[in-house]
Amino acid sequence: MSEALDYIQQSTAEQRKLFQLSRSVIINSSPRMVESFAYKVPFYSIHYKICYLNRLKKGIDIGFVRGNELSDPHGILSDEGRKMVKSIRLFSREEFNEDILRETVQEAIILDEFYHKRKQK
Questions:
Q1: Would the N or C end of the chain have less CB density within 10 A of its end CB?
Q2: pLDDT confidence of 118, banded at 50, 70, 90?
């Protein structure tokens, strides 16, 4: 089992369910999405690190590395005092919205592609 899956399995039952739902949306958002383990949490990337999953005391954090550049039309991203990273914080299954997460991940992928193309020039 990978370190990312080990991390998820070591969570509470509620966190595990939220992680599994979120991980599925993230991984299925692009056939090029790669899961890795860095800074003691699962990260997801194509060219650069796009997002990560992290445990909270009673929920999970879906962090977006370039979250400060995301449009956030639904007002779901919180910065918690961070300058770049913004995250979706979930504390129950009822709060999970697959469509909003998919939309946010897709926008983060577009940013990843933009920065990759810009670096190639």
A1: C
A2: confident
